[in-house]
Design goal:
Blueprint (H helix, E strand, L loop, with lengths): L3 E2 L2 E2 L2 H15 L5 E6 L4 E9 L3 H15 L7 E7 L8 E10 H13 L3 E7 H12 L7 E7 L4 E7 L2 E8 L3 H12 L3 H9 L8 H25 L8 E5 L8 H9 L3 E3 L18 H4 L4 H8 L4
Parallel strand pairs: 3-7, 8-11, 11-12
Antiparallel strand pairs: 1-2, 4-6, 5-6, 8-9, 9-10
């Protein structure tokens, strides 16, 4: 539990060994990997700026970023994408991405220690988006939210007609559910984990679902309120999709759906993808699919 804390790698040698062993076990020959960074040291923001050609936008972006990014510009890696390159208005929409350079360098160093190299350093939110778009093309219309509920945190993505307009990390994950159940019911970590991974909505889950589900619902509502206050064109969230291990907690998604009064459904990273015969021979796609959204999104990323 102390190797990775709140998404930050605390013991590089243990994680590097795990990467090395995984590459060896899978027989992957490629030594160049696509990796991603995320968390509070990464900012993804949709901004509006004067319409200029991309080359000029690249020159102006550092100044624009200073207005929107709460980091020292000398310690940041910046990138951007013009969302409406063919528009004819005086302004254009731009998706701005900023990550602390130390975060990117640490990720590259970790992979080098494992004997691999990063061809691309992506952003968690974009990798999730790529897998989500490939599997749920209908969700690219209107305003929807994608929750990736992990062990330590939940990644929240809000998409407007397929464009990520807000990404945010919520400090709620299955570890909190597990600790709640241990404290309230006096059970061990292993028993609590079995209930979280089970198929039945056990009575001992109810209190944790209500308290942590409420936190997730409030996180969504606050994000939606923020977007509504900053953009008149932002519409109501029409649906929520959930992936990650937490999306499989029995009863959690129906609880959030009832609380928000909008549909909340699981998102499977293999819903529209062809899987090689035998690749999942001993696994159920319904069980592992929600866990694979981030890695599938990275695998779909072109290294070009």
């Amino acid at each position: 539990d102390t190797v990775i804390v709140e998404g930050e790698v605390m013991d590089h040698s243990v994680v590097a060994d795990a990467i090395r062993q995984t590459i060896a076990a899978t027989g992957v020959k490629a030594k160049h990997l696509v990796a991603a960074v995320g968390g509070r040291d990464v900012i993804v923001k949709k901004i509006t700026m004067e319409r200029v050609k991309e080359a000029q936008a690249r020159e102006l972006m550092r100044w624009e970023a200073e207005q929107h990014v709460p980091f020292d510009m000398d310690s940041v890696e910046l990138d951007f994408q013009v969302l409406d390159p063919d528009g004819d208005g005086i302004d254009m929409s731009v998706l701005l991405v900023a990550a602390k350079r130390e975060l990117v360098e640490n990720r590259q160093g970790l992979l080098q220690e494992a004997g691999a190299a990063a061809t691309v350093i992506d952003v968690d939110a974009f990798a999730l988006h790529n897998a989500f778009e490939a599997n749920y093309p209908d969700a690219m219309n209107g305003t929807v939210a994608l929750l990736n509920i992990g062990n330590e945190a939940t990644n929240l993505n809000i998409l407007d007609d397929g464009v990520p307009v807000l990404t945010r990390d919520l400090g709620i994950g299955t570890r909190r559910f597990r600790e709640d159940m241990q404290r309230e019911h006096g059970i061990g970590a292993e028993e609590a984990e079995d209930l979280l991974r089970g198929f039945d909505r056990h009575p001992m889950l109810e209190s944790a679902i209500a308290s942590r589900g409420e936190e997730l619902a409030i996180g969504l509502e606050r994000a939606a309120t923020f977007l509504s206050s900053s953009s008149r064109s932002f519409g109501q969230i029409r649906a929520v999709y959930a992936c990650g291990g937490g999306s499989r907690v029995p009863g959690l998604l129906p609880w959030i759906s009832e609380r928000l009064r909008i549909p909340v459904q699981p998102a499977n990273a293999l819903a529209q993808l062809a899987v090689r015969d035998g690749a999942l021979e001993f696994l159920s796609t319904d069980e592992v699919g929600p866990l694979l959204m981030l890695p599938v999104g990275l695998a779909l990323r072109s290294a070009a």
